[in-house]
Task: inverse folding
């Protein structure tokens, strides 16, 4: 089926783009699983924006670049931060019920921010944002929402009926997850908004579908990717043997939470950074990792029980209730926490209009490398990036619409040489193996030797998974496994190229930062 524009992904980036495009164009939004299964719905802390009279754009720019260890592109940082107040106004218009403080929005604080500047809806900001965007999209006559479709590969000139071999993107092949049939969806322009690749790690706060699909699809189609070694680990994921990926928002530390070594009973951040618990994430995560390794711990404690119980319950109702259900009363007890993968800072390279290297392909949100985050994302800057680049990509498409040709006839999906799999166990085995060696060899602290070990395993798995992919009908699990492996490969190759420690990439073989900061750009 042909549409004006296809948006792949129904999170903050995808729906922002779709709503802006729908002012004049017919938009198809495709999503894997349900429409709320991306990271957006899970966001807790909030959205960073300069709204306080004592704060300035320059402060926010500086905090973003300090957290990003100077790898950020200043032009992008300014572009995004200056548009943040407008993005918040737009969300208010859509009905997002941000917390208030008298006549103003309530601003909370998170690590790396020199001022209070995080707008939020209690401790469940993402759910409120997702719901508001989705209800606006559902009500829009120009938007068609198509959940339950796992996109497999972008359609390019190579798939035209009259083969052109060009890199022009004309849409996407997608698996209907209910019927098992593969459909070709074509359009004049395509926007990738598929989120991150966090599930490449054994422990991650990201949802099940964060398998780097968009990054892998763009790479296979010929787009460059950048800074994939910069995988962010959040310092405080709940340590619980049953519930493995529940985030404890950084705002708990912003509102006074302290990190304690359960063996010594002492606060330990003073040994690592003068900003204590509010140092940027990479520093706090490495400090926790170091305490855990030094003292042979399973976890450290995050303690906010010294604050009044009503204050704690009032600020963190969702986390409070979730923990109570697990037998932890955070108003009276410390919370056991460990670092876990949280955010993919690198991704598909885009410019300020959301354009990728490939004609007809735009991208926005966590699947991109826009230059905003550099070597480490500042807390609550990522939803903001989704709103700003979702809008920027849409505005560029609208402004140049007369230059977008109609898609040519393209080839259908060829299933003539595949059969149903009789070895699903291969998928589970490989999925588990990738996530485990990525955690152990490509985690918070790296060495060249460990990276090479990971690379060796990736090469073996490429052969096995390509063989499997060539013989059996696609399923969502197989699509995700193929993309997970591709993402792991891009992360490891990027990490091996960086001969320094900077931000999230910390290696014992090159512990110092080089004088000049450079992006790691991989060219297909
Ligand atoms: P997502 O919201 O992840 O959406 C991706 C979409 O792409 C989904 O609809 C998915 O179904 C679709 N998709 C993926 N692959 C395919 C495919 N193959 N075919 C079809 N569709 C596909 N950031 C902040 O700024 N503030 C916070 O407080 C905050 N808290 C967070 C808390 C948690 C627990 C997590 C995990 C992240 C948090 N983040 C936060 C990060 C932020 O939530 C994400 O970076 C952001 O929501 C990403 O939005 P997105 O639109 O790029 O992608
Ligand atoms: C959090 O609430 O700690 C997450 C914020 C973010 O990822 O930006």
Result:
């Amino acid at each position: 089926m042909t549409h004006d524009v296809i948006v792949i992904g129904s999170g903050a980036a995808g729906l922002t783009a779709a709503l802006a495009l729908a002012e004049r164009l017919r938009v198809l939004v495709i999503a894997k699983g349900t429409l709320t299964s991306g990271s957006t719905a899970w966001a807790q802390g909030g959205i960073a924006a300069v709204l306080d009279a004592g704060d300035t754009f320059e402060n926010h720019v500086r905090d973003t670049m300090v957290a990003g260890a100077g790898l950020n592109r200043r032009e992008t940082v300014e572009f995004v931060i200056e548009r943040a107040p407008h993005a918040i106004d737009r969300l208010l218009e859509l009905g997002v019920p941000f917390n208030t403080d008298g006549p103003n929005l309530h601003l909370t604080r998170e690590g790396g921010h020199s001022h209070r500047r995080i707008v939020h809806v209690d401790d469940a900001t993402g759910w409120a944002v997702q719901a508001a965007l989705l209800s606006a999209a559902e009500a829009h006559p120009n938007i068609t929402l198509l959940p339950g479709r796992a996109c497999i590969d972008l359609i390019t000139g190579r798939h035209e009926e009259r083969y052109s071999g060009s890199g022009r993107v004309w849409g996407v092949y997608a698996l209907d997850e209910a019927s098992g049939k593969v459909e070709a969806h074509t359009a004049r322009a395509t926007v990738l908004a598929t989120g991150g690749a966090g599930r490449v790690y054994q422990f991650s706060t990201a949802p099940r579908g964060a398998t780097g699909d968009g990054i892998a699809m763009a790479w296979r189609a010929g787009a460059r990717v950048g800074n994939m070694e910069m995988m962010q680990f959040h310092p405080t994921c709940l340590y619980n043997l049953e519930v493995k990926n529940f985030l404890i928002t950084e705002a708990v530390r912003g509102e006074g939470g302290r990190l304690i070594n359960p063996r010594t009973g002492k606060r330990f951040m003073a040994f690592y950074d003068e900003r204590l618990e509010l140092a940027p994430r990479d520093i706090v995560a490495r400090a926790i990792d170091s305490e855990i390794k030094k003292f042979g711990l399973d976890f450290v404690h995050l303690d906010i029980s010294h604050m009044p119980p009503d204050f704690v319950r009032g600020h963190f109702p969702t986390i409070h209730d979730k923990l109570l259900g697990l037998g932890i009363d955070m108003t009276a007890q410390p919370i056991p926490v460990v670092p876990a993968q949280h955010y993919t800072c690198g991704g598909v390279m885009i410019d300020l209009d959301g354009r990728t290297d490939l004609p007809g392909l735009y991208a926005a949100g966590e699947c991109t490398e826009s230059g905003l985050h550099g070597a480490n994302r500042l807390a609550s800057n990522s939803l903001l990036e989704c709103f700003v680049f979702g809008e920027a990509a849409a505005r560029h498409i609208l402004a140049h619409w007369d230059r977008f040709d109609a898609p040519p006839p393209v080839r259908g999906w060829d299933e003539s040489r595949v059969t149903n799999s009789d070895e699903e166990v291969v998928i589970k085995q490989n999925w588990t193996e990738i996530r485990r060696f990525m955690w152990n060899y490509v985690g918070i602290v790296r060495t060249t030797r460990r990276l090479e070990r990971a690379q060796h395993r990736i090469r073996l798995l490429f052969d096995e998974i390509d063989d499997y992919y060539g013989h059996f009908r696609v399923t969502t699990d197989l699509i995700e496994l193929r993309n997970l492996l591709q993402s792991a490969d891009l992360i490891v190759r990027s990490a091996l190229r960086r001969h320094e420690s900077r931000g999230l990439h910390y290696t014992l073989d090159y512990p110092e930062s080089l004088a000049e900061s450079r992006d790691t750009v991989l060219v297909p």
